Amino acid sequence: MYKIFKDVEYKILKDSKKFEIKGIEYDSRKIKKDFVFVAMSGSETDGHNFIQKAIDNGAKMIIAEKNINIATYKNADDVTFILVEDIRKKLGIIASNYYDYPQNKIKIIGITGTNGKTTSSFILENILEKTARIGTNGNRILDEEFDAVNTTPESLELIKLIDKSVKKGADYFIMEVSSHALEIGRVDMLQFDSAIFTNLTQDHLDFHKTMENYFNAKKKIFSMLRKDKKNNGTGVINIDDEHGEKIYSEMKGNNSISISVRNEKADIWGDILNYTNNGMKVKINLKNYFEKTNPFLKNINEECKEEFKFEVDLVGEYNLSNILGCVASALSLGIEMDCIVKKLEKMSSVSGRFETIKNDLEVRIVVDFAHTDDGLLNVGKTLKQITDNRVITIFGAGGDRDHEKRPKMAKAAAKFSDFIILTSDNPRTENPVNILADIEKGLIEEKYPFGKYLIIADRKRAIKHGMKLLQKGDSLLIAGKGHETYQIIGTEKTHFDDREVVRNILDEMK
After folding, report:
1. Burial letters for 328-341: b for 16+ Cβ neighbours within 10 Å, e otherwise?
2. Banded pLDDT at 179 (limits 50, 70, 90)
């Protein structure tokens, strides 16, 4: 039973009779007979407070991360107590030992960055076959879908998901890797066959405090590329982003592929040829990639195609950047470009990402997850390009989160919006009035005309008012929640779906 502690420093506080471990959990409610209970200290709850409940439910081993008084626990005669300091960082190794390192039996692709992680994971799962995917939009293993609690789960849950994916026959495990997960060690036990860096703009400073800390957390993923006798992992880096350019220069081209929109010096670059009714026509150039990865390729095969032109059901340069990252990743995994293009041409749009709501008003209504200034600007600029008349924007900012980004989001919206409605977006325990005042500061600093914006705290009312303002040829952008189907007010999570609200209002307008 002590095999689970291989490569982990631990101290036996109380030894007991050996038993066959039937499972490992850090939630005492999931504990069954002959399980191991991991008592972790969290920001809201302390697992050490639930040790007795775990014992009552059948736990035969308790792993604590601080000294505890064993004598205070009832019915603990045949329970083993172990001390492992900073257990959250070690749990991934313990889980890997128990599940026999399933992460070494499947290709793992990690996607990190402020924006574009979910879209990139969606693109990749359309290119690759027999995939599992975890991230903001939920988790999926082959044809089985289930909800996600965090963008990147705790290490124990992550190993369970990888193990299940291997057993179900998946060949690829695609995961969004959050800066939180990288910082606190949720993915320390993994090696990535491919790691994609999309971009970095201000977000999560409530956790990281500084942009430098945020950046260092993100780039940690490139120190985790797989290195073994058979394969070396490949980093895919967007050099249009200044932080990406820095990462690429530090890697000095070793086991890395640079991507760019329009920068013809990148290993793989692309451009938008024109917008279509459903998306855009793009071109992707692989000349530099071929010369870098196999300089003799052209001599071997004179018909090797360097440039590809095709249509996709996505719009905007930021989405072309996401496509390029996924193309580079797929190529590094051995997928042929012709196959990649065919898959991209058949791919549908992404839920909650520039999702267009059909209507009879001769207007464009778009719901998007954009919740940072950069994300808002990317979506807004694209929408402005394809809009004949005005762009009306509705957005807010999450409560109990980074305050500094709020006025920046307003400044971004001011660059493309003809009218703005500020509203709530998961205010949580913070007063919505204070959040909206923080956002409004950005409009005031930009000298955005007072008569061209409104503040309506109630999100449903804000959407309804925005839709009443629409005229032929207008576009309405409802940003911040995208695929989300809830609203968090105080500590209560209630059902709320921007898309559903829009469709209901459209029905009322008939």
Report:
1. bbbbbbebebeebb
2. confident
For the segment 262-287, the average pLDDT, to the nearest whole number, is 92
Length in residues, the chain? 510
**Does the pLDDT of residue 286 top 60, yes or no?**
yes
pLDDT tens digit sequence for 225-235:
998 767 789 99
C-alpha pair distances (Å), 401 with each of 365, 424, 429, 489: 28, 13, 10, 14
Tokens of 245: 């350019």
Token pair belonging to 112: 């990190």
Task: Write the DSSP symbol of residue 210.
Answer: S
Answer whether 379's CB lies under 8 Å from 370's CB: yes
Residue 189 has pLDDT above 70, yes or no: yes
DSSP assignment letter at 253: T
Q: What is the 3-state secondary structure (H, E, C) of 300-332?
A: HCCCCCCEEEEEECCCCHHHHHHHHHHHHHHHH
**Pair 457, 445: CB distance under 8 Å:** no
DSSP string, 6-64: TTS--EEEE--------EEESSGGG--TTEEEE--B-SS-BGGGGHHHHHHTTEEEEEE
| Cα–Cα dist 65/82, whole Å | 8
Average pLDDT over residues 469-498: 95
CA atoms within 13 A on the CB side of 253: 9
Which pair of structure tokens corresponds to residue 419? 């009218």
Q: State the pairing for strand pair 172-176/107-112.
A: parallel
User: Of all helices (H) and strands (E), which one includes residue 356?
Assistant: strand 355-357
Residue 62, strand partner residues = 37, 81
pLDDT in tens, 319-361: 999 999 999 999 999 999 999 999 999 998 888 889 999 899 9
Model pLDDT, residue 304: 66
